[in-house]
Specification:
Number of domains: 2
Number of strands: 6
Number of helices: 4
Radius of gyration: 16 Å
Helix content: 25-40%
Length: 150
C-alpha cells in the first residue's frame, strides 16, 4: 500500500566509499570500470554533491567480493577507499511509486521511530533501496511492513 507492493532484503553487503575524490566523469568512470573489469557486480551507486573539484563516490557489492575489490582497485592504482561490511539492503518496490507522494518520507519516519539509521539511499521511479546496519534488518523490515501495511 501507499505505493509499495513488495519489500525485500539482502544481507552480506559491503559499502565502498571514495571520499574526497576528483570530480570528473572520467574519474568516476575509471573507478567503476576497475570494478567492472574484475567482473564484480555493484549496486546502489551514489555520488555526493560536488564540493569544488571533489566529491564522495559510494557503491555496494557483496561481502564475498572483498578480496576481488581490493585486488581490482590496487591494480587500477586508485586511492584507497573506505570499506565496511556490516550492512543489509532493504528494497521497497512498487509500480505505484511513480504517482505516489511521500513514500520515502513514510519509510524514513518508520525507521526513525525505531531508531534505525540509514547509511545510504538510492532510488528509481519504482524502488527505494536503503542500506542499514545488518543488526537492524529484522526490526527495520517489521517497521516498514507495518508502515506500508504489507
Amino acid at each position: 500500500m501507499y505505493g509499495v507492493s513488495k519489500i525485500t532484503s539482502e544481507q552480506n553487503i559491503m559499502l565502498i566509499t571514495f571520499p574526497n575524490t576528483q570530480y570528473s566523469a572520467q574519474n568516476l568512470a575509471y573507478h567503476l570500470d576497475a570494478i567492472a573489469k574484475a567482473g564484480i557486480v555493484i549496486d546502489m551507486i551514489s555520488q555526493s554533491v560536488p564540493r569544488g573539484d571533489k566529491l564522495d563516490l559510494s557503491f555496494t557489492t557483496s561481502n564475498d567480493n572483498f578480496a576481488a575489490v581490493l585486488e581490482a582497485l590496487a591494480a587500477a592504482k586508485t586511492a584507497p577507499p573506505l570499506i565496511s561490511s556490516v550492512y543489509a539492503k532493504i528494497n521497497l518496490y512498487g509500480e505505484d511509486m511513480v504517482t505516489s507522494c511521500g513514500v520515502a518520507a513514510r519509510a524514513l519516519a518508520a525507521l526513525a521511530e525505531i531508531h534505525v539509521d540509514i547509511e545510504l539511499i538510492t532510488t528509481s521511479d519504482l524502488d527505494i533501496s536503503l542500506l542499514l546496519n545488518d543488526e537492524d534488518e529484522d526490526a527495520a523490515l517489521a517497521a516498514l511492513r507495518k508502515a506500508f501495511e504489507l
